[in-house]
Amino acid sequence: MLSGDFNLIADPSDKSNDRINRQMMGRFRRCISDLDMHEVYLNGRRYTWSNKRTTPTLEKLDRVLVSVEWEALYPASFLSALSTGVSDHCPLHLVLEANLRRGRRFHFESFWTKIDGFQDVVQSAWSSQPWVRNPFKRLAAKLKATAKCLASWSNKYVGSIKQQIRIANEVILRLDVAMESRVLTVEEMELRRLLKHKLLGLASLERTIARQRSRVLRLREGDACTQYFHAHASHRHRKTTSPSFGWTEF
To answer: Where are the domains of the chain?
Structure first.
């Protein structure tokens, strides 16, 4: 490891002050680009080294660089920093298969648009969020609120299609068995007719959901087939984009 101004950083943000050897930084970035490498994101820490002075200089000197092929092999990797201990560097801890818990994904059902109350739920959720100056954050908040309200509305007024189909079939079966030993009452006959009618609608909804899921599956399979090429394209985009620019708040 080189010392002083020759510590290898890839971006001005990798150092806590502006005493930067930009020539060396440019060479390091070109080397990373020529090797076609990508840096694994470091979670939880911005810098990995300190000179331990009263007003310390902090730098990101420790990093993990990988190839596109490695990224494809370990898409669930997770990089974090450990305690410096007796060193002035942070040891890096790389988990190849991180089991990160994720919330249940939101699935929009196309048949929702045909149910009474759908438009009211969307309009109410969309307008319920306070105004935020940043348009991206504002859109994200509105989409999140709408998804949450739609999921709650569906659970309350639509419920599980599969469970409703199972219940309807079970009741129809019991009435069919009872019909073999006695005459069904008028109410039982009407219930059986109503359940059969509802079952047709539920089966149609189930087919609609299945078709929608199959489209998503085909898209995912298509993405999986071209994942390698997409990764290369994304990496090339990162290479041609200057890393010295940060996010702009609106």
So the answer is: 4-101, 110-230
